[in-house]
Input
Amino acid sequence: MSPLDEILRALLKRHLTDAEVYVKRGRSRRLERTPLTETSSTSQERAWAVRAGNRRASFFAAATGDPSPAGPWPEPVAGHSLELPEPEAPAAWNPPSDFDTPLIGEREGLKLLESLGRELESELPRARLLRAVLEDGSSESELASSRGLRSVTRNRVSTLYIEAAGPGRPAPLASLYVAAREPRRFHPTALARRLADRLAVSASGAVPGRDTGDFLLAPSVVARLIAGLTPLLVGPGPGSRLIGARGRFGGDLVTLIDNGRLAGGAFEAPVDGEGVPTREVVLVEEGLFRQPLLAWWQEGAAHGDVSGCTRRPGWRDLPTPGPTHLYLKPEPRTSVASLLGAIPQGYYLIDVTGPGRFDLAGDRFALPVCGFAVQSGRASAPVAGAWLSGGIGAFLKGIAGVGRDLTFHPLDGMIGAPTVLVTGLELRAG
Amino acid sequence: MPLSKLDTAAVARTLSQIAEQPEDVVDAFFERREEVELAPEGDPGALRVWREEGFAVRLAREGRTWLASRDVIEAKPFAEALRQVARAIPSATYPEPALEVPPFEPVAALELLDFPGALSRAVRAHHVGFPLRVTVRRHRRWIQVVGPRLVAGAERESFYSCAVESSWGRYGALLPRLDAAAAEEIAVAAVSLFRARQALPPAAFRGPAVLAPPAVAVLLHEAVAHALEADTLAQGGNPEAAVGVAMAASCLDVLDDPGAAPEGVRRTTDDEGAAVVRRWLLRGGIVEQPLADALWARTSPVLLPGAGRRGTRHLPPGPRSTHLEILPGEATEADLLAGSEEGLFLSEASRGTLDPLSGEFTLAFPYGRRFRRGALAELVGPCILRGRVADLLTRVSAIGLDVRSAGAGWCAKGGQKLPVWATAPALRLDGVEVTP
Output
């Protein structure tokens, strides 16, 4: 009998008929560089979590080390029932080969961070890195439940956080946070150029007057807007009620997909955090709302199939439904240049400069942005200190063009978007 | 104390083997944590328990730091971690000191089970009733820091956190105890959100604002404590250059004193094992002593260690405040609200942000009240106080004479979530900008 089965048996003896044991092992390396310091950390995690209960009472316990059948287990509290999913075989899936690559070495990682600083300075003289943090980790998780569910999953993910200051006084600040399966997918030149563009625009950009027109939104801006919409797309909440209005959620170019097994995705896995098979789920198809993301226990509460969308970032976390790789479907034949060329008068907004505000009930959003004014398809002047605002419905219905440059951003899960041309929004001073 | 059986002398001897140079900073940080939560009624997994223990070994030399951490307190992983941080080439074999820790005790948290009922009664005592989702959690932490030459005393922290959600917003607080006063504090905040549910945000205005102690604590945490952390100061230049700068009105005295924090979270040493100090951040509005940890203190003789904190063993420590103390003034409540100009009374701040380079600062409030001719008037909805730190803090024109423990909350700078505490009076600021 496996150690996990022994624990399930011990819990059953306590009349806890539904029980689940989750064990996680992980290794990570973290490298941090500031103008004055360098830090290299290595961590090894070893921990577990148990959910157990019945129709009347339940508990959740998690700890470092290895679980023991003897516990000690908390007393289940009445009024909180627990149910667990039935086992279901996932579709065939082969672990990607990069799961086996070793973590980045100390010297290699610090070199990557150093080159980021160099590239930034060559892109924008007198710009400087304030802080760069590279984290690289891999883990294996095992799940067993009293329903007979068994799963073993692996994960490999790297993140890079960069804070930089530009020239001038007060110095403009910009930060970037990106994620990929492996650090070698981070390209210092491209990242430095993105930071330099933002710093240059922030340093020289003028605050616009209130204006409308065509807006070309870079992937990072669109991804933040989609992340703001996720409460509409997860669970039998407000989003599922949109089906009533003839199912119309956005313009014809809006197709939103979530896919827990997206090939090459940072969180690619055959099953979700509760061992339910992941799959591609079309949430919005050509503007029509098809279904929200539904955890197994939400089946029947809204139209649609179970999505395999329960996330479990670590052993401390309770499983919670949410997007894994949620993205706006790109249009492979449309280049960003052609979208820009189609703007007679408007703005090209290249990045988000702070947290946005989303009022889903009031159908309003506001996002701090920077970019360029555009005249006849060409950037005419930098714009900073601006807020893009409007109706959420107006944004979705006003999408007039979708580019092919799909990129993913670590927000609420990985949120992906290409460049988008949109009308019906407003730009104003902050 | 669960960490009392660690053979700290043997750990210190082992650490001394990797401190090859006189200026090396070497330490081992052992921690055990327990959090017990009572989830909102109806949620699965009613009683939730998180227990963890582990250690980190650190070596810092000439601006470079190496850290290795594990989720276990055992001799062999400790020796492995030492090998990872040691700079000896070829890698040496280190002795395995005895690291014995007792198992966790069975979970007992009866006080949590009683609190939602006490809170419900406290709300009803305000003659209102509405559904609340209550999450209450007990936090306990034991730490032991060992250096090659110094073994700090073991430290223990114990406190509670509570979050309530209603249709009108969310309120969260840290509480040293889970008693009737705690229930009343949470009830007042929840009832205030309820009563302000239909209040409209105020139109943008510039004028006086009176901040109640909880809002003052958030303001000074963001605008003084974060601004005076040595690593934040270093982003704009040399941290010691801040000493002597007039940063606020001359009536403002702000200290960080972990030794005067509420019982249960009071500290004698920081998370690096250095003795904590009663640190005057601002004396008469002038910067006196920025917050520094052991490494920053080595960069300048004017920086004192004792403010090193770590949210987790997996990350290196950094300079942070623990318990802010704002010294009282002489203004009564009537003095604070006096004058012919109409203003805003802001009691609770929901969040604050500071741009360390530009000094731009915002503080968000879920609701407030107007005041005119010395009396509180109608409620207003959400609003934001904004400005530059240097300008905002010079606008303090009066300080209340009553101080209270207030404004404790979580701070998550650099991904390290830490509890912070404060004792503060009310403040009046004149000519500040408030926007909806």
